[in-house]
Amino acid sequence: MRYVKFQKDWPLFGITLMCDSWTGPTRMSVINFLIYCNGVMWFHKSIDATERIQDAAYLFKEIRKVVEEIGPENVVHVVTDNGSNYKKACKQLLSDVYDHIAWTPCLAHTVNLMLKDIARRPEHGVIIKQCKRISNWLHNHGQLNTMMRNTIGGELVKWNATRFGTNYMFLESIHRKRDRFMQWMASAEFQHSKWANTEEGRYTHASFSSMEWWDALKYIIDTVQPIYKFLRFADQDKKPNMCEVVMAYQTMKQELQSFFGTNVSTLKEYVEVVDERLRDVFIGTYVGPAVVLNPRYAYTMDPTQQMFRGLKDTFDRMTDHEGAVQALQEFDVFRQKVGEYSSEMTMRMAMDPKTSPCKSYSI
């Protein structure tokens, strides 16, 4: 087998199986399977899913095949995107067959779906629709597009229909060029062009010449900045460990609270979107238990009761009753920071990310 040296770590560390669907320009659909173990990622195989309906039943069947190829006893974790088909296949169907395997949705995809939910808010939808209308007009005419690029000194970011974070990158790219767009609308070059008196030209001029419109655009961008920062954190090349994920989540909520201030009702609506999406990441997965067992977290924060319940469920899932009881007893010594865990050196090592024994896990 290609990864025979890699295999020796499987029984000791367990495997995270990752799978991802991809559809290319030719409409060929592929599902990739990758193995992650002890800090090493390995490509396992791809299957051609073209002309197949990728519903939960089909995905469950293909994922189960791969689990059996690897050995169910080695697999402890499955990571996919957070689409409803994968969620049902892994969270409902897979757990019925392998009760020791936990499912976690991809964090970056989950945050991306938060932005999709927020983009449905009326004030967001209006601005996004207006900016797309203007952008389409500016890009549908070669001469006009050249005039725009020469004026603003570059091109606008284009949005991606399936990556909703790009909507806000697109809005930011427009706002960064605000002054140049306003100057262009007032210039003789634009005013005397054949585009100025068209319906779309008048619409663009009215929008770009209005400070109220620019203020509305800036407000929309600012409301999602904490979430967009969390998306960049989740989508970085260096995969964050689970303790860092929880800390970044808490920072995001604090920044939302700071931005909305006394506007409690709107803050609540945003936080509900965030928490609803992240529930799949934190509840019934290994994220909470991993954070509770992380020395850096244990010495700086108090785990919630929900995290403790998740840890108990994890011990029950991964070992027999006797082993779970022993693990919880050992954890209680760790939590109370007694014995070897009470020394100043231990605390300093736990607080220092460079020495804290944390590994990064792809979620």
Whole-number average pLDDT? Answer: 86
Strand arrangement, major sheet: 3-2-1-4-5
Radius of gyration: 25 Å
Number of domains: 3
Number of helices: 19
Unreliable residue runs: 355-363
Summarize the main sheet: 5 strands, mixed
Oligomer: single chain
Secondary-structure element sequence? HHEEEHEHEHHHHHHHHHHHHHHH
N/C terminus separation: 27 Å
**What percent strand?**
5-15%
Provide a short characterization of the protein structure.
By secondary structure, the protein is of the alpha/beta class. The protein contains 19 helices and five strands.
Set down the secondary structure blueprint.
Layout: H1 4-7, H2 10-13, E1 15-23, E2 29-37, E3 40-48, H3 56-70, E4 75-80, H4 84-97, E5 102-105, H5 107-119, H6 122-139, H7 142-152, H8 165-176, H9 178-186, H10 188-191, H11 199-208, H12 211-234, H13 242-260, H14 264-282, H15 287-292, H16 295-298, H17 305-318, H18 321-336, H19 344-351
Parallel strand pairs: 1-4, 4-5
Antiparallel strand pairs: 1-2, 2-3
Helix pairs in contact: 3-4, 5-12, 5-14, 8-12, 12-13, 13-14, 17-18
Describe, in plain words, how this protein is organized in 3D.
By secondary structure, this protein is of the alpha/beta class. It contains 19 helices and 5 strands. It folds into 3 domains: 4-105, ATPase, nucleotide binding domain (Nucleotidyltransferase, domain 5); 115-227, no CATH class; 237-351, no CATH class. The chain has helices at residues 4-7, 10-13, 56-70, 84-97, 107-119, 122-139, 142-152, 165-176, 178-186, 188-191, 199-208, 211-234, 242-260, 264-282, 287-292, 295-298, 305-318, 321-336, 344-351; strands at 15-23, 29-37, 40-48, 75-80, 102-105. A 5-stranded mixed sheet has the order 3-2-1-4-5. Helix 8 crosses helix 12 and helix 12 runs antiparallel to helix 13 (242-260). It is globular and about 80 Å long.
